[in-house]
Amino acid sequence: MANYEAKENAIKVLSDVDLRIVTSALETFFKEHYTLTNMYSAFHRDSIIDGKLRNISQNDLDQLGVQLVLIATINGGLIKEQNNLIKMAVEPIHYVREKFHLENE
User: pLDDT per residue over 47-60, tens digit each?
Assistant: First the structure.
């Protein structure tokens, strides 16, 4: 049980880090490069009117790309650890069912 709780806490910490990175990266990129019309549209219409960006350089796109790779890597780790937690939670249930010959209970 302690191992489960430790893993659960690690996932929580990693989730918090992930959220901070996502918020920081996207908020900065949006504020620096979206047009007013596209920013409004993205948040109020769930779409962007056109693909126009302002004050954008290749370095800005590269930096966003690196941040997105980091986010994707963290998310992949979170999914893997969440699946491990599910497995840890289900294994004792299977053991009890087999040990005591319980079916669908």
Answer: 888 989 999 999 99
